[in-house]
Amino acid sequence: MKVLYLESYWSSILFVGFLIFVLVHNLVHLLQTLLIKAYTPGLYTAVLLVTPYTAYLLYRLKDATLI
Question: Are 57 and 19 in contact (CB under 8 A)?
Fold first, then answer.
């Protein structure tokens, strides 16, 4: 939706909100692992793939002044 409506304020708010939700969800995976001191599903994917990609995406959106 963000790509289709680049100049839309509401699409920016929804997309950035979704990205922040993804980052918080990844933090939950990390905290669960630390609290129960055992592997939780999704930990490696969250830490190695999703978090860096999401952070990079937020950086690129900010750099392009789309957010």
Answer: yes
